Amino acid sequence: MIDIPERTVIPSVRHLKELETALTSTSPYVLLTNVHIGNLEALARKCIDSGHKVLVHCDLIGGFKPDREGIRLLKNMFGVSGVLTQSAQVVSYAQKAGMFGILRVFIMDSRSLEKGIQILQEARPDGIEVLPGALADRYWDLFEPFEEKTTLIAGGMIVTEKERDHLFDRGYRAMTASSPGLWNLTR
Fold first, then answer.
1. E strand or H helix that includes residue 92
2. pLDDT tens digits, 131-157
3. Residues in contact with 32: Cβ distance below 8 Å, sequence separation at least 6, in sequence order
4. Across the strands, what pairs with 36?
5. Helix (H) or strand (E) holding 53
6. Within 13 Å of residue 138, how many CA atoms lie on the same side as its CB?
7. Contacts of 66 (CB under 8 A, 6+ apart)
8. Gap between the Cα atoms of 132 and 73, Å rounded
9. What pTM value is reported for the model?
10. Which CB contacts under 8 angstroms, 24+ apart, belong to 75-78?
């Protein structure tokens, strides 16, 4: 499980001009989603220096391969605390490197949902990010059994305070949001 306060909105920084706003958030984590291997070190250092731990979507880092060596590089060279990925293998690499491994489960249709649940039954991620947020609510009952062993995170397409609060009330411990207006709302 991930040590994170309940009802935490993790800023998901897609546009670098929004990083300064993310660094003023109350979240202990910042998720860097639009980075490449050339700017990751400077961006991660800026987050760490401001007291935030760094998360990355390792499948989306430009110029990066999320293999065993790549994951160790994220930890040792860039100070990354955790990775989000669709791969159970990458979650395992991250955990062995001393990082959090958060498995992203996309609900696109019934088949993707079934496959995601099947992978979760075999994997042991530190966190599960359920996407998109609107469907995270609808399928809460399928993810609730994992709540005792992992941190449940909703993400994607959450734009209003009402949506945020509803997902927290439903039982999600945290959420990722790319809308800066949600980053510092009072919990």
1. helix 88-96
2. 999 899 999 999 999 999 999 999 999
3. 13, 40, 43, 44, 47, 54, 55, 56, 57
4. 62
5. strand 53-57
6. 10
7. 58, 59, 83, 85, 87, 90, 93
8. 29
9. 0.95
10. 75/99, 77/41, 78/40, 78/41, 78/44, 78/54
